[in-house]
Amino acid sequence: VSVLSENDSGSLLRLAACLGRHRVKIESFTCTNGDASQLYQHTVVVRATPDRVRRAAKQIGAAIGVLNVKFYRDVDSHERQVALFKLSLDASAVGDSLETIVRASRARILVAGSGYVVVEKTGSQDEIEELFSSLEPLGVLEFVRSGSISVTKPALAQIDET
């Protein structure tokens, strides 16, 4: 669900409450004022039947301060998350095994300090979980994942067959 709203103190609470009333499970929630205006873009990844999401989106759209509401299926958008993994090791001690895992998963080593390494991965939830299972034997001290962000896929142009 994508919501464009004015920046007021209760908009986030009203949005979450409306989804809850319609028994729509929130899996992740991200907000940004991407164009530095007083408008906020909320991206909410939800799990529910399309009918429940439609009803909730209609009610959200009628709220004061909401300018636009759209909802998309997984196949209609490109979704990504960012994850950080803090490992309890020295990069030079592990050497090739860590580098092999990082390269294979298209992640990158963000910081290599004494006694710890921070690995960053941008990708789908499945890719992040796969990397976590690969890094777990090396000793994951901390793991943090962002909420999903997404952009819609362009609509396919219809072709006239005349």
Notes on the structure:
The chain has 162 residues and is α+β, with helices and mostly antiparallel strands. The protein is 31% helix and 38% strand. It is built from 5 helices and 9 strands; from the N terminus they run βαββαββααββαββ. It has helices at 11-21, 50-61, 91-94, 96-104, 125-139; strands spanning 2-6, 25-32, 39-47, 66-70, 77-87, 108-113, 116-123, 140-145, 149-152. The strands form 2 sheets. Strands 5, 6, 7, 8 and 9 form a 5-stranded antiparallel sheet that branches. A hairpin with a 6-residue loop joins β2 and β3. α1 runs antiparallel to α2. The two termini are 38 Å apart.
Précis, in short:
31% of the residues lie in helices and 38% in strands. With 162 residues, the chain is α+β, with helices and mostly antiparallel strands.
Keywords:
31% helix, alpha+beta, five-stranded antiparallel beta sheet, four-stranded antiparallel beta sheet, elongated, 162 residues, disordered C terminus
User: Which regions are unreliable across 5 or more consecutive residues at pLDDT < 50?
Assistant: 156-162
Secondary-structure-based class equals alpha+beta
Radius of gyration, Cα only, in angstroms?
A: 20 Å
Note the run of SSEs as H and E. Answer: EHEEHEEHHEEHEE
> How many extended strands?
9
* Cα distance spanning the termini: 38 Å
Overall average pLDDT: 83
Strand count, sense and barrel status of the largest sheet are:
5 strands, antiparallel
Separate helix tally: 5
**Beta fraction:** 35-45%
The helical percent reads 25-40%
What overall geometry do the principal axes of the alpha carbons give?
elongated
